[in-house]
Amino acid sequence: MTVSAFCSLSLEPPLILICIEKTASVHHALTSAGGFVVNILSATQEQLARRFAIVDIDRFEGVGFSRSAEGYAILDDVLSVIECRRHALHDGGDHTIIIGEVDASRIEPGAPLLYYRGGYAQLER
What we know:
CATH topology: Pnp Oxidase, Chain A
Number of strands: 9
CATH architecture: Roll
Shape: globular
Radius of gyration: 14 Å
Helix content: 10-25%
Strand content: over 45%
Number of domains: 1
Largest sheet: 5 strands, antiparallel
Strand order of the largest sheet: 1-2-7-6-3
CATH superfamily: Electron Transport, Fmn-binding Protein, Chain A
């Protein structure tokens, strides 16, 4: 599932935030769950990002994934995974701001997939 915004919020305690549009098909699932996983895609996974942006399909059909200890989907071959416990929910106009406390994370070598100004981009060095 895709979110409108994702960022680090605090180092102590380790908190992140995601913003999800209230009309999104996954809004209820995200706001009612006790936690969530953020899958950070690698620069080679643009097609996967596009798939998860499609409305009204089974996003996981044919997509490799495993489950976290809490049962949340961890996509295969992603750059990074951040497992969170829901810390707080806040109204954000037409979005809900979900704050998660980080329980576990991992990162693999590689470059992240970026979405900027309506398109996918690469980091430049």
